[in-house]
Design goal:
The chain is an alpha+beta fold. It is built from five helices and 18 strands. Strand 17 (255-260) and strand 18 (264-272) form a beta hairpin. The longest helix has 9 residues, at 213-221. The radius of gyration is 18 Å and the shape is globular. The protein starts with a strand and ends in a 10-residue tail after the last strand.
């Protein structure tokens, strides 16, 4: 059952509305459904807004100018030979099974990776399917936005010379806690901040994006049909752990908080565990 926030009060949408993914796929008007919402009368645990996307999550790498320079200098960038600033969007994916909700733990196995990093990102929720979408029509296909932490095992990313595996470990895609519809966010002026244990690490604005959302949608949909409910993470700004000297990788007991202006704050603790993973329980 989907949850909305009315003012400062969390509320349940009617059971007939279904999950948020079903609402997006049906094109149901959220504003009308919200009028029928029932205020929660007891504490509730929020899940990821779309806890199991239908397909892999599309992601864009090196999409903020300063982060592109930061990552190119890190030694982990397999695309650095073509220059720090990409000439076209670098698109990769994370498997849907790695999605977790707010306040759930990001769990890593030190025996598998000892270089776990955070990446605060604004994520697009596709609301209208399409292929060959032009930049001028791209925003017609956007339903709304949420927050994603593109957690990454840097050593695995570097060793395998590709990004899918090191970004798709179980629990490596915190999402939420809220979504906003497309009309509620100014893509040209939205702040993004990330804190680790209260220390501000990332502080940026979407005006610093190299490739804007319409360009990203046009690039992906040129050959891949985007479907309602697809998630596109638009990239992370400067200030990730690998950009520090020495790197500031996540450790057992850390807490990561990501705030996107107009959406809210996503908080997740970090836990180290041998044999970490959720297996068939996911």
């Amino acid at each position: 059952m989907a949850v909305v926030e009315q003012g400062r009060i969390a509320a349940l949408l009617p059971e007939t509305a279904g999950s948020l993914l079903e609402i997006v796929e049906k094109g149901a008007p959220l504003a009308a459904l919200a009028q029928e919402a029932t205020p929660l009368r007891r504490p509730a645990r929020l899940l990821a807004p779309i806890p199991r996307p239908r397909r892999n999550i599309f992601c864009v790498g090196k999409n903020y100018h300063e982060h592109a320079q930061e990552f190119a200098k890190s030694g982990f960038d397999s695309s650095a030979a073509s220059g720090a600033i990409p000439e076209a969007p670098i698109v990769f994916s994370k498997v849907p099974e790695c999605v977790i909700g707010p306040d759930e733990a990001v769990v890593f196995d030190p025996a598998v990776s000892d270089a776990t990093d955070y990446e605060g990102e604004l994520a697009v929720i596709v609301g209208k399917s399409g292929r060959g979408i032009t930049k001028t029509r791209a925003m017609d296909h956007v339903w709304g936005y949420t927050i994603v932490n593109d957690v990454t095992a840097r050593d695995v990313q570097g060793r395998l010379k590709q990004w899918l595996v090191g970004k798709s470990f179980d629990t490596f895609c915190p999402m939420g806690p809220w979504v906003v519809t497309a009309d509620e966010l100014d893509l040209g002026n939205t702040t993004l901040k990330t804190w680790v244990n209260g220390e501000l690490r990332q502080d940026a604005n979407t005006r610093d994006l190299i490739f804007d959302v319409p360009t990203i949608i046009e690039t992906i949909s040129a050959g891949v049909t985007l479907r309602a409910g697809d998630i596109i993470a638009t990239g992370t700004p400067v200030g990730v752990g690998i950009g520090f000297n020495p790197p500031k990788y996540l450790k057992d007991g850390d807490v990561v908080e990501i705030e996107v202006g107009g959406i809210g704050r996503l908080r997740n603790p970090v836990r180290a565990a041998r044999g970490a993973g959720r297996g068939d329980k996911a």
